Amino acid sequence: MSSGRCKGVYSAHGEDLCLTVGHHDGVLKVCAQLAISRRHRPTVILHVQLRRPDCHHRFERKGHALHTQGTLVVMEGPLFSTRAESNLHRSWGAHLIGMTALPEARLAREAEICLAIVATVTDYDCWKEAGESVTIEMVLKIMEENIRSIQEIIPDIWKELKNRGDCSCRRAAENAIMTDPAVIPYQIKRKLSLFYEKYWKKP
């Protein structure tokens, strides 16, 4: 499970928690993947399904407002948004904006690791014209409160994880490796064997 500080681009209280469903990476950059070489030349072509980048398992938590649907825009940080950017994200139908979740969600899916991101909201970003502007002091104060909330819910989520059944995340790469194992260089195979050897050994 991953927790991340976010800003609300729709109304959300600072103590609310959100299990994010969709992520939108608004930054143009080289994709971070497990199955590439150091020079970013693909040696293993891997296309995992990312329609829903988090684990589909639903968690329940009493005592905190927990929103189980939401779209998170991932931006390059550390930055505060301009009002134009914040309103653009709202026009897309996004609910949160933060600086983490991608490429973490993509890497977790490629590694067949279940991932749930608990997004803790610190402020309303800068779209909300009423009220004072976001400051570092405001963010740090609410972050302290959110850390306590996360510490409270982790034991409950851990109990749920122990009792859950199988999940498609654990087989995400089963039909996603496009490269013929026979042409994958030995060193690359060795590095990725922890994740994919079980598929390369298939007849």
Q: How would you describe this structure to a colleague?
A:
- The chain is of the alpha/beta class.
- It has one domain: Rossmann fold (3-Layer(aba) Sandwich), CATH 3.40.50.1580.
- 29% of the residues lie in helices and 15% in strands.
- The protein contains 4 helices and 7 strands.
- It has helices at 83-91, 104-110, 136-162, 186-200, and strands at residues 2-8, 17-19, 22-25, 66-67, 71-74, 96-98, 117-123.
- The chain has a 7-stranded mixed sheet with strand order 3-5-6-1-7-2-4, with helices on one face.
- It starts with a strand and ends with a helix.
- The relative contact order is 0.24.
Primary descriptors:
seven-stranded mixed sheet, Rossmann fold, alpha/beta, single chain, 203 residues, globular, 29% helix
Task: Give the tally of β-strands.
Answer: 7
Determine the structural class based on helices, strands and strand pairing. alpha/beta
Helix % is: 25-40%
Number of domains: 1
Write down the overall mean pLDDT.
Answer: 76
**CATH fold label:** Rossmann fold
- Class, according to the CATH hierarchy? Alpha Beta
CATH architecture: 3-Layer(aba) Sandwich
Q: In what range is the share of β-strand residues?
A: 5-15%
Oligomer: single chain
Largest sheet: 7 strands, mixed
Order of helices and strands: EEEEEHEHEHH
Determine the N-to-C terminus distance. 34 Å
Instruction: Detail the poorly predicted runs.
Output: 11-17, 23-31
Helix tally? 4
- Report the CATH superfamily: Nucleoside phosphorylase domain
Radius of gyration (Å): 19 Å
Q: Tell the overall outline.
A: globular
Strand order of the largest sheet: 3-5-6-1-7-2-4
